[in-house]
């Protein structure tokens, strides 16, 4: 029995189904992310776990206890809101202390635990400030300390980093992960940012239109996306229509396909009987080789400098392929340069 | 150029200043001057300086009683408006869209009816044979004398003033981050604690301005006390009216009006100071 379990949870608003038969098991201490585009039902799912939104069907259990219809103020979960939702009329200390006050802890205990929580998020010096005197990142930390100080069984994070600027967001990603490791609280985060999801969590739950489409560890999700949607939503991908080429047979290590008449090989996969397939190839898995030495030749039609890497668009008989190259000491190709492209059959994926 | 630049703000605010000074400052000054003039029943107002009217007001228990009644009625009206208006504003702010507009209109609707008409409406309801006493009679109580007592005045004032309390509080509630209430709930606060410790402190400015408007308008109300308090139950505004139009003692009326203005100002400023001080410290 998992620590937190969602069983066939659905949410309807009138005739609209926002979340459909969702099943999810979260182990104790795990960091799980609900990832999906806006409107996919991930926030609704979090709200149902928090108790702010009623569950239409199904049940939620926490540590063996059914909490489906428990009111939010009896669930005792820690929640960090997207807007932080700090109490603007209370100091940082009072904000963090509020949950402990509600649990009727005496003053000495409150002081001790609030100090520990503020130390955890490196805000010891700002305890006397009011939220309006804090920067976005500091507000974020206060919200985290306020949620963690009550030692909740589960920490829920609703797009916690979306209001921060890019650099700060990256810093907070690492810090969030470190704090979660240190405290060991089971954490569920909602985000629409795939890099955020992949960099900090143990497991990603991809949602699309109210349905869970894939649950996997970040590496597997990136390497083996199970649908066209996931392969483009998580990272970049070259998607190509391919035709099945007969031969090879059941025992072969690679499957032979053709894309626009160009032979294309990829790792053997269970193929459906349809002759039209979709294959995906990550831009960073393709490398430049001298003309004629790769799988296909092409001409660079555009290039973009991204700092740590170059992103090229290469016209090939297979269509326009995106190619990403690290910005190392090799001279970058120029636009209109002809080049050969090469990749390992292992890095191409057939999408179902 | 420089001269033009410097005079532009003055020129721009000139129309408002002209309106303000001719319609407020000038009459107020004239009233103040009038209140220090000698009055004689045979010869009328004389342009001679005297403190006599102020002395008469401050030494006569009759006036003290009227001032005291005026302020407790205004205070009680404010309190009742707050007790009814704050929850009503909260409920309004939580309503869905079609209903919120409808109910907001219902709240504002009384403002469309003349105060005099509403006062006569209440006098029919509260009279000895009015609907209220009929209901009391039906359940075997009464009849009670309500009309021409302080209670009739308070009831009617609450009815008239309620929108002035609800609108400022509702506006404050609109600015509230809805997540804040959920945050308090998630930290195991009860709904009541959330309202008291999280919502109320944040809508304090609305409560403050609502209370000040209601208190100020109630303390200087004329039509309601005049029509529902009757001839005997006097409030300051009705006494001022009597002095001006029945006694023709304009200076005494002017003195009473000025004292009402100052007393009102004093009460409102100290109330403002107490509440706003607390709010300012936290919210800036």
What's the layout of helices and strands?
The complex is a heterodimer of chains A (352) and B (284).
Chain A: E1 4-13, E2 16-26, E3 31-35, H1 42-50, E4 57-62, E5 65-66, H2 72-75, E6 78-80, H3 92-102, H4 107-120, H5 136-148, E7 154-158, H6 166-183, E8 186-191, H7 194-200, E9 203-208, E10 211-216, H8 218-223, H9 228-233, E11 238-244, E12 254-259, E13 262-267, E14 276-281, E15 287-289, E16 296-305, E17 309-316, E18 319-326, E19 338-342, E20 348-351
Parallel strand pairs in A: 3-8, 3-9, 6-7, 7-8
Antiparallel strand pairs in A: 1-2, 1-4, 4-5, 9-10, 11-12, 11-14, 12-13, 14-20, 15-19, 16-17, 16-19, 17-18
Helix pairs in contact in A: 3-4, 3-5, 4-5
Chain B: H1 2-35, E1 37-40, E2 44-49, H2 52-59, H3 61-94, H4 97-108, H5 115-126, H6 131-138, H7 150-174, H8 178-186, H9 191-202, H10 204-219, H11 223-228, H12 236-245, H13 250-283
Antiparallel strand pairs in B: 1-2
Helix pairs in contact in B: 1-13, 3-7, 3-10, 7-10, 8-9, 10-13, 12-13
Description:
The complex is a heterodimer of chains A (352) and B (284). Chain A is α+β, with helices and mostly antiparallel strands. Chain A has two domains: 4-229, P-loop containing nucleotide triphosphate hydrolases (Rossmann fold); 236-351, Beta Barrel (OB fold (Dihydrolipoamide Acetyltransferase, E2P)). In chain A, 25% of the residues lie in helices and 35% in strands. The longest helix of chain A is centred in the middle third of the chain and has 18 residues, at 166-183. Chain A is elongated. The relative contact order of chain B is 0.12. In chain B, helix 1 (2-35) packs across helix 13 (250-283) and helix 3 runs antiparallel to helix 10 (204-219). At the A-B interface, helix 2 and helix 3 of A face helix 8, helix 9 and helix 13 of B.
